[in-house]
Each structure stands twice: as C-alpha cells, then as structure tokens.
Amino acid sequence: MANQEDIFKNIISHSKEYGFIFQSSEIYDGLSAVYDYGQMGAELKKNLRDYWWKAMVQMHENIVGIDAAIFMHPTTWKASGHVDAFNDPLIDNKDSKKRYRADVLIEEHVAKIETKIQKEVDKAKERFGDSFDEAQFRATNARVLENQTKADGILSKFKDALEKNDLEAVRQIIIDCEIVCPISGTKNWTEVRQFNLMFSTSMGAVTEDSNIIYLRPETAQGIFVNFLNVQKSGRMKIPFGIAQTGKAFRNEIVARQFIFRMREFEQMEMQFFVRPGTEMDSPTGEVGWYNYWKETRMKWHRSLGFGDENYRYHDHLKLAHYANAACDIEFSFPFGFKELEGIHSRTDFDLKAHEQHSGKKLQYFDPELNQSYVPYVVETSVGLDRLFLATLAKSYVEEKLEDGSTRVALNLPAFLAPIKVAVLPLLKKDGLPEKAREIINLLKFDHATTFDEKDTIGKRYRRQDAIGTPFCITVDHQSLEDNTVTLRYRDTMQQERVSIDALAKIIDDKVSFKKALQQLK
Ligand code: GAP
Q1: What pLDDT, in 10s, does the model give residues 204-246?
Q2: What top-level class would CATH report for the domain 401-518?
Q3: Which of 212, 315, 409, 410 has the greatest number of beta carbons closer than 10 A?
Q4: What is the pTM (predicted TM-score) of this model?
Q5: From ligand 1's centre to the CA of 442, what distance in Å?
Q6: Is 87-195 a CATH 3.30.70.1450 domain?
Q7: 267 lines ligand 1 (CB under 6 A)
Q8: Which CATH number is associated with domain 37-78+197-393?
C-alpha cells in the first residue's frame, strides 16, 4: 500500500493532470507558494465557497455578507497591530544561505522527539497486545520519560523566549538543540530577526513613504472598518454577523505543502458582534457565542462527510493579546493534523483600536440596555485553499477493481463536484451526438454539464471518475427509439436504464446543496 507521502504526491500530480491546480506562471518556472486554479479547480473552489456562504449568510437571518476592497487605508494595519506585530522570527544558515523560521526549526525538532516517543509506544503496543496500558507505559518507560522531559523542556524555554520577545534566547535553543540546516548540514546560524509578513506597494504615481499601502493579510479588517456602515444601513441588531470571502496575502517564509501555506490565498471570515459578557459561557450555564460558533463550525465541516475522526479542536493555551479564547479546528491532512479554521474571541480589541486611530465612534446603542457600547467579536476564519486541499485529500481514491485494473476517482460530495453530469454518445454518428446535446440542453440550466465523444466509453468513464463527476449519461441507439439512456453512478459504477424525462429529478435530488444544508439545522 502506498504511504501518505506518496499519496500526497499523487494528489498533487492528479490536480495538475486534470486541471484543478497549476503552479503560478509555470512557463517561467513558477512563483513559489503561489498557485492558479484550473478549469476544474475553479468550479470546485466556487462550490466550496458557495456552500460556506449559503450556510453562514443565507441560513442566518442575522448575518449579512460584504465584499470589501483588498487595499485599505494604511492606518488600518497600524490599528490592527499588523505593522508592529505581524512578524515571524527568521534565521539564516550562513553556509547554505537558506532562510528558515526559527519557530518552525524548533517545532520540527520537538516533533522528531515526539515521533521517537510514539515509535516506542507503538513497539510496546505490538508486543503486549490487548493488555497494553499506554498511559502507564508513558509514565514509567525510562526512554519515553527521558525524551518527554527533553521535549517539554525545549517547548517551555521556547514559550518563555517568545513571551519575552527574546530573540537571542530563541537562537540559543537552536544552538543547544544542535539543530542543523537540512541543506548544508551545518550549525552555522545568523542572529534571529523579526520579519513582517505583509506585502506592501505604493499607491499613485509618487513613491513616498506616505503612499505605502499593504495588501491585506486578513479579510477581517475590511469587516471591522465597515461595522457601523453595515449596522446602520442594514438596521442590524446585536447579536449580528458580517461575513466575507476574499484574497489575503502573506509573505510566508516557510511556504510548503502545496496549497496549505500560500503567499496569496483566500479566506472566508465572519465577525459576530455581541454584547460584552455574552461571548463566553455564563456561570448560570448559558452557552456563550464563542462555544456556539466552535460547535457550529465543527458541524459544518463534518457535514461534508469526510469522516468525523478527521477533525479535532486545538485550544490555544497562549492567547494573542486581543483574545480571551481561541481555538483551531484541525484536520487530518496527508502530512498530519493541521489547522484548517480558527475561531477567536477577539473582545473589543479591533473596534476600540479603530476608534482610537480614526477618532470615529464605533459603538452600538443597545435598546434593551438603553446604553451604548463597543461590541465584542467572535470570529470564524477558514482558509478556502486549505478546505480545498482537505476536500481533495479525502476524496482521492486509488482503487483496485475486480477485473484487476485500477481506477483513480475523486469521490467528492456530489454537490461539490465541478461537473455534475457528463453526457456521452456511444458513437460519433447515427444522430447519437445530436441526441446527447438535446439532453445537455435540458440539464444545463441547473447543472454544470459536459459533452464527451472521444475514445472508448470505458476511457470516458475513467476521465469523469478522475474529476469527480457523479453521473455519466450514455446515449445509444435504443435512446433514439425509446427515449431512455444509461445512467452510471461514479461511486458504485452501477448503471441503470432510465427515461430521459426522469433524469432531471434524479440528478437534482443528489446534487443540490439543500440536503447538506438541511443537516446543519
Ligand atoms: N482573521 C483571523 C486570521 O486571519 P489566521 O489563523 O491567521 O486568522 C485563518 O488565518 C485561516 O486562514 C487559517 O486557519 C488558514 O485556514 C488560513 N490561512 C492562514 N494563512 C494561510 C496561508 N499562508 N495559506 C493558506 N491559508 C492560510
């Protein structure tokens, strides 16, 4: 059986071969960590975005969507803290001239120690079978204990150094752990420096400092600065949400793992404005908005049907200065559990900061309390590209069929598939292509359809399986006589004879967003 690494490589080449994702500017050897979505990828991405939008905006009376500009007044980023604090600690290896994120070097080193521990545990599990008590083994085995103490010690020193913003101490951890550059193999490291992740450009014809603007590193600030515009023009009553999807840009240093960490990516964010004090659970047991959104978003992810075991929460122990609670929804990507979405209780930090920097009041008059206040905010923020990668990774299957052949399929949820129906005339003659086009003309108003008459029918089925098309319709000579066709299902590969008049209903039922959205209630 292929391992996860091989499967991940296969997914990347499959994405290219079938028009899902291409390296940006590939003819010029590409641009690192920037990707283009091809003809299939654009459709799948749009369907994921639509599913999020429908669930978050259309299904909530008190959430509205906006589309703010990417360019924003530069003071926005001073107020939000991004100019001063949106940094990564960087270190260079003097021999290879390669640059690394110091925190990633340390985390990877700790991950290696943890892998060693896991190997010991797995070995013992195999040896002792059902009687194995993992907790006891971890608490008593000398080698495990030694490694665990080592890992905990490094993490604790690292947390301390970050909290004190002590970059020399971060470097010292790298030296003490004897971390080497993976390229040169040496420990010849520079100092650690902070590096701001925002991209900047200048607006207008004159290049002066005052004209410098940033490409937004998150879409959230476009929502904060429009808080009062939307509240007033939409007569919104607290609690209410503002949602948007759009591009964000970060000059990531360690940009790897395909579309997991990109320099240009898309976020889908929602800021939920609430009365202060209602964001966390109350002592009387009322669920606060933070936990409400944690659960609601988890349910949304699980509704995609990729398996509940592939999701978990990761609560943040170290909180950003503006947050009073934060967690990630992590997903089991082919390279391990990693962040897919963040849920943050951001208090009134952002709105207050914008009040201070703009001199404008950003307050809400609460008629029930008869008082004005700066609302608190609970944010949900998911990366569309990461969601795309999760979807591809869990839908991609390499199957051995009964006849010994293999098939590669994308078992996408039908409502997300880029193409819903492929109509295939058995032959290129005898009026079969014309009949197939009639069927396309019936279905194309509601669904993404395609027509394919090239190659054998078997090859055409495989091509559709590979892009995740849930239905293939084959038109043959009998179709001309009795108005029936063969309907083939992607997942089971079963076929049935159905009347052309019945097609729309069968397909509508299976590919509509409605069923998936109904599970969310
Ligand atoms: N407004 C809050 C915010 O931006 P974040 O945790 O920095 O929070 C939210 O980002 C989500 O955006 C992440 O959970 C991830 O899915 C996605 N994301 C962040 N950086 C990314 C990158 N470089 N490439 C792709 N997706 C990214």
Answers
A1: 876 666 788 999 999 999 999 999 999 999 999 999 999 999 9
A2: alpha beta
A3: 410
A4: 0.89
A5: 41
A6: no
A7: yes
A8: 3.30.930.10
